[in-house]
Amino acid sequence: MQKFTRVTGIAAPLMKANIDTDVIIPAKRLVGHRRDELGAFAFEAHRYQPDRTDNPEFVLNRPRYRGAKILVAGENFGCGSSRESAVWALAGFGFRCVIAPSFGDIFTNNAFQNGMLLIRLPSEQAERLAAALESCVDPTMTVDLERRVVTEPSGTEMPFEIDAELRQALLEGRDEIGMTLAREAEILAFQERDRAARPWIYRPRPGSTPAA
């Protein structure tokens, strides 16, 4: 998966709570569309008017937030179903990072498995950040995973916490399988020790002579 180290870009506020995966990507769009096409349907119900023209009232359609890479959202973002396609749609829209007070559990795992950084901030900090994005001249921010800081449009740095293992996986661009394979030497060494200690639980290796 794509590494995440540092991203600088426009940040957009979408502070409604409980935005679920069906809002992020409607179920009807999961048939007949490739993964890399789903960004066109992200937030479809709010993003477009009935004639498929842009809804000017939707925050992500406002000119100042066009091309946003960072999303600042409300409580329980990504709740609902387990569809991984919600993350694909966000990535297709252009987002690399979502900042919110809390996230749906399955959505959280899907995001990290696809190289998208999720940052949890207390509600008051997230709301203050969203307000700053609305009032500043240029809503550009930086998220630095190596330093674990968010730099607001004003230049103020806001530290954040993240699980050390997930952070390392994102920095190295490894999903769970990649993280496991990175420890292949340790795994093989354990298997050799265990095979010697408990040979009866292992099938004979191809071409080997079974023990008497």
Architecture overview:
There is one protein chain. This protein has 212 residues and is of the alpha/beta class. The chain has a single domain, classed as Alpha-Beta Barrel (Aconitase, domain 4). It has eight helices and seven strands; from the N terminus they run βααβαβαβαβββααα. A seven-stranded mixed sheet has the order 4-3-2-1-5-6-7, sandwiched between helices. The longest helix has 14 residues, at 184-197. It is globular and about 70 Å long. The chain starts with 5 loop residues before the first strand and ends in a 15-residue tail after the last helix.
Describe the main β-sheet briefly.
7 strands, mixed
Radius of gyration: 22 Å
- Overall pLDDT, averaged? 91
Structural class: alpha/beta
Query: How many individual β-strands?
Result: 7
**Which percent range fits the helix content?**
25-40%
Termini Cα gap: 47 Å
Topology pattern, helix = H, strand = E: EHHEHEHEHEEEHHH
- CATH C-level class is Alpha Beta
Number of structural domains: 1
SS field, number of helical segments: 8
- Strand coverage percent: 15-25%
Low-pLDDT stretches: none
Oligomeric status of the shown chains?
single chain
Strand order of the largest sheet: 4-3-2-1-5-6-7
**CATH level-4 homologous superfamily:** Aconitase, domain 4
CATH architecture: Alpha-Beta Barrel
What best-fitting shape do the alpha-carbon axes yield?
A: globular
CATH topology annotation: Aconitase, domain 4
